[in-house]
From TrEMBL:
Pfam families: HTH_IclR (PF09339), IclR_C (PF01614). Residues 78-255 form the IclR-ED domain. This is IclR family transcriptional regulator. PANTHER family: HELIX-TURN-HELIX TRANSCRIPTIONAL REGULATOR, ICLR FAMILY (PTHR30136), HTH-TYPE TRANSCRIPTIONAL REPRESSOR ALLR (PTHR30136:SF24). Keywords: DNA-binding, Transcription, Transcription regulation. It comes from Kitasatospora purpeofusca. Residues 15-77 form the HTH iclR-type domain. Gene3D superfamilies: 3.30.450.40, Winged helix-like DNA-binding domain superfamily/Winged helix DNA-binding domain (1.10.10.10).
Length: 260
């Protein structure tokens, strides 16, 4: 009889190299300048020789490029190709017209995000830079988008306890894990999340989930404005428009057998 697999079993051969290679790619998340082997080594906690060897392997597969003059690295064409392919496979190119319509109807900025670790990553909407096509990466705990993604997690998503220290961005930011857990319970009951100056003073955002048939947030949809425009008195009006848009996005972005 085969032995049962235990939690202490060693990872498969090569898994560490794969994890390190993926970690190396994640070093470029901040869209900063090209990185040297020393930069990569410092960010990864590796020796320079190991970082250089991993980077050269990724260059050979076109996941990284190396500048021939500076020897620094940047993301390569394979990453760009896969990113574009994923964007279209997810149907996200279909989302922009719906977000534009929501923005025109409400007079507020509209964004659509997914979760990536401790961040909400905006893929489509007003926060996507027109010059680069890149959206913002926002902390989960201080944003309406993030609270939605935490409140309706997908399988495998880590909980509040794994987010680490909850950094304050304003005096309204929730920084205590137990307080954030209470907030998420309120979000689930209300069906929406509110960010009232928690990430930036003078900005108010309301977000709703784009739910699948299992009740998990595949995306989070937000409208963002000022407290003078997005008032308490008009909150339900904004929510009606946001929920109508979320329903339309569910049809566009989710397969029929995964919709509510």
């Amino acid at each position: 009889m085969a032995e049962a697999v235990t939690a202490t079993q060693s990872p498969p051969a090569g898994a560490q190299a794969v994890q390190r290679a993926l970690g190396l790619l994640h070093c470029f998340h901040d869209n900063g300048p090209d990185l040297s082997a020393s930069d990569l080594a410092r960010r990864m906690g590796l020796s320079v020789s190991t970082a250089h060897r991993l980077a050269r392997t990724l260059v050979s597969a076109a996941f990284l490029e190396q500048d021939e003059h500076t020897a620094r690295y940047r993301l390569g064409p394979a990453v760009a190709e896969l990113g574009q392919l994923s964007f279209h496979q997810r149907g996200l190119h279909l989302a922009a017209p719906e977000l534009d319509l929501l923005s025109r109807r409400t007079g507020a900025a509209a964004d659509l995000a997914i979760r990536s670790g401790p961040h909400a990553v905006i893929l489509v909407g007003a926060s996507v830079r027109p010059d680069t096509g890149l959206g913002l990466r926002r902390p989960l705990h201080s944003t309406a988008l993030g609270k939605v993604l935490l409140a309706w997690p997908r399988p495998g998503d880590a909980g509040v306890a794994t987010l680490g220290p909850l950094a304050p961005f304003t005096d309204r930011t929730i920084t205590a894990p137990e307080r954030l857990a209470e907030e998420l319970a309120k979000v689930r009951t209300a069906g929406h999340a509110l960010n009232d100056g928690e990430s930036e003073t003078g900005v108010r955002t309301v977000a709703v989930p784009v739910l699948d048939g299992a009740g998990q947030a595949r995306f989070a949809l937000a409208v963002r404005s000022t407290p003078a425009h997005l008032t308490d008195e008009r909150l339900e009006w904004f929510l009606d428009h946001a929920r109508a848009c979320a329903g339309a996005l569910a049809v566009l972005l989710l397969p029929p057998d995964q919709r509510i």
